Amino acid sequence: MDERKVYLVGAGPGNPSLITVKGVTCLSQADVIIYDRLVNKRLLAYARPNCELIARDEHAKDQDKINHLMVERARAGQTVVRLKGGDPFLFGRGGEEAEFLANAGISFEVVPGVISALAAPAYAGIPLTHRRFSSAVGIVTGHEVPDKPGSAVNWEALSRAVDTLVVLMGMRNLPAIVERLLRAGKSQETPVALVSLGTLPAQKTLVSSLGRVVEEAKARGLQPPAVIVIGEVVRLQELLAWVEAKPLFGRRILVAGEATRLTPLADLLGEEGAQVWEAPVIRIAPNGDTAALDRAIGKLRSYDWLIFTSSNAALHFWARLRALNCDSRILGGVRLAAIGPATAAALAQRGLIADLIPERYCTEGLVEAFATLDLSGTRVLLARSDLANPLLPQRLSAMGALVEETVLYRTVPAAVASERQADIGGLLRRMEADLVVFTSSSAVHCFADLFAEPDLQAALRTVPIACLGPETAATARRLGLSVQMVPEKYTLKGLVQAIVLHWGKEK
Q1: For residues 171 and 178, what is the distance between their CA atoms, to the nearest angstrom?
Q2: pLDDT tens, 414-452?
């Protein structure tokens, strides 16, 4: 990407996974990103840590500021990304912004985006064209009042010229739009679909007709943003509604744990159709006192086994090796045990292959695996969290092993943004959460401490709970929570599969 250049990037229809590859590249290399406030904030995670993020409203009163800001930053030698919802050149003032840049002598590039006019119907199961029903499509704005003098949209001509009509930003003017189309000769039985929050887990679809859609939309309480689709292709929606067929569609799930694990978990649940709220209630911090760890590393070859009980342990151990200017050669003949495949994968990324992975990915599983070996006089190093389960060193010692423990990292409460905390608290108070998922025992305790008000605690005890493993489940049950789902394999994928299976049985 070039310095002193502005990239007008389409953010897509709302679902962050629908941004283009070129769009992600631009975000990851930008010096400054000027983004519309309605853009999905998860896209900003692609930005570099030192990238400046500037939020701007899409209103006309803010447009002049946006234009001058782009020019100012580009002239300062910065790579600028102007991140806009949908596509920059479709009802997004992108043409005006490009015109301003061109007149100012600023080089620019347009990165098209997936538009809601295509994506929302597709996610609702409505093909805009079909050989039996539609060969012409019209896309118009519904933002202006149809009956205003000098309307830019010729509704009468459109009603005759195209088979499928897609109206964006038209929910507030829906009654007037319907009335104009009916006056133009459209039948009251013409199929209509309203797709609210299209491509997002909270998507809602109403299939109706021109004669009934206004009343039914009001009864359903459908709110903007929504895409309006008018035409015979809407009749295919019931057959082709693939998103609504997902096993977790419509489920509202709250996940609590450490931030780096929550996003992959939220993505997996979202792929199954769930609407997910993330509560990053714990964080992982390096152990400030490394003296004991450094002594253990200094005599590493004297151990027979080095056991990792989490992927965080593998990452922090390797980071400490590098800080001491050491690499894998220092391990010599030490054998490695990993509590599960995620931990083994973290080791493998650094060229280390685990010699032992238990069949059950938990502390008890490690105990069972080591019980098949002769540990008499074997020296074992456990480098792990300050809150690790004491069962493992106790059981290994009972088998004759000489166990030494050292703290690699600490699990501490995380500061949850007040806005997110309020959202989660409101979700619990209104009894709107279908499930709460905990990824660790620490997450259970920190979540309970964060939402300690009596009404929230009472609400939490009424919600079904899913836990990543038996230790987490035991902690939740001790606090009086109703644990209903624990996977057979203690991985994020296994957890999601258990949730899907549970609700699949209900269906």
Answers
A1: 11
A2: 988 888 898 899 999 999 999 999 999 999 999 999 999
